[in-house]
User: Fold this.
Amino acid sequence: MLNAEVDAATRALSHLEDTCLVWHSLDGLRAVTGVAALLRGSPGTSGLQPFAADQGEVVRSLPAVSAEARAMLEAVDAGGGQASSSRARPGVSVAEAAGPAEELIAHGLLVSSGDGMLTLPGEVGLALRGGRTTVAPVDVPPPLPTSSRASTLVDRAAAGAAFELVRNLELLLDAWSATPPRSLRGGAGLTVRDLKTTAERLHASEPTAALLIEVAWASGLLALGTDEEGDPSWMPTELFDQWLQQPLAARWSHVAGAWLASPRLPGLVGQRDPAGKTWNALAPDLAGASAVATRRQTLGLLAALPDGEVLAAGSGPAAIVTRLAWERPRRPRTRTESRESLVDWTLTEAETLGLAALGGVAAYGRLLVAGEDSVPTLAGLLPEPVDHVLLQGDLTAVAPGPLEPALARTLAVVATVESHGGATVYRFTKESVRRAMDRGWTATEIHSFLTAASRTPVPQALTYLVDDTARTFGTVRVGFAAAYLRSDDEAALAELLAHPAAESLGLRRLAPTVVVSTVALDSLLPRLRELGLAPVVEAPDGSVHVARPDAKRAKARNGARPAGAQAAHLAARATAVAARIKAGDETASSRPSPAEPASTMAILHEAIDAGEQVVISYVDGRGVAGEARVEPLGIDGGSLAARVEEDVRSFALSRIRSVRPGS
Assistant:
């Protein structure tokens, strides 16, 4: 019956036996109870219902029908075995049939359920396909279009993306360590504004920023904590500090493995949910039941390509979707994501994370997908970190390779990343130098750092920039008296008082070197900086008070474990569950056998699988007992769906008193 080679069908049957979906009975192989009902779908509406012509004999040939009826029959078969026709009358004879639908009903080639639905019986479909379950062979997988490309190119391109991933995660979590963004109400995710700000800081698109944020959360490096004001905010965990001490390849393996095992769907961020609301990053319900399986299957197909072969450019996810539909034809579609979307997201995210590139999976990516150690292979592809930069006369610093983590984080305080790539370019500006001074750096410390970090002499222009910023830094001192401004430079205060944009600050001069303001200190500081000043806060004793933002940390989630620890934890749980099942079986075997070998449910399930009739004794809603000969179709939600003559009825299982075979 299968449109497949005998060897392929034998292997498939052996697989079904190994997975305990079929078993050997006295009458031959049978499906496990419940499998047939699941394959039929909704009770009473599936094309797998038996066709009882000649008392259950399989149809060998179809009766002669008109060309229109034959075309309709083939269309119903191609459409999944079901069709709707509100005009077709059930139970008509051949002579009374009007139209192709009624002609097919009259010949028994379509079965009407009475609600306008027409079902193609399984035996009719077999006869229509010449005794085969499908028109096309089912043992020949759809091919994947490939092209030739050296594996070394794939590995190097992917390794570059892996380096960028780790570096961007460091920048992201370092920034959120100082100023953690607040969560939406009830921990419902990240605001759209914070996502946009993060994307601009990382020089990345918003989908890429959402992916990085979700990966940081999935790997346990990011969690929901509490800021100084007691508000829930997103901040790095203690695990982030441990992660920073690991080699770059180990850091990548940790986060990439977490993405591979995470059911989260970063691709949904920015889209609309079924209710019309926008999906936010870190939203609790941003997950899919089949995300992990589809992700692994997609990468598994690419990893299985021969060495030197990659997915052909331009083929996109369509070829992989077709192949996965052949391998997993019954995977249900959910309301939030389709198989096409999952495959598309997987390919895009895998290249962003550095598992794949140029249509192929990197060598270390294959190891990660297979559950093996990928760190040594990736480490051999990454360049050695450098401990210096090259200062340029145009106020930039060029990193000739990946910087050591400590140097990169320190340099990011006093300079701003201008461009990424093989050589990262940092630019020094008045704002970046002032940012370092706001964190407590002195001009001397900045000069010392630049001299130690650079292999080239410090340009005179950069020295002047630091000195000029330090000269104006703290010229205006702001007090806590809501608020006052004090400066030894009387001209600076006079210029401020005369500034047109300073009228809203409520400034009033008390002395040549003191000005008071009606604006609170927290609002006054940013307003003064907008006017081009560089004020510092003055302590009550008159000393300079420099705010040093402390690195904030949240507690790591209990479920955030390294990949190896997670696998060990799951193995231990599986062992414990198996031991409990075994103990329960031993306890059950020691009990006396019940008087009746088959329960009501068992008889009903056997009748559903065999398509046979049974006689049920039941009590209706008025309390009246009765019997009925029915053909059970399925059990769902505490009810039995059964065919009674030409109708499909529902019986509450709690009202069924007994069941016996109908023959």
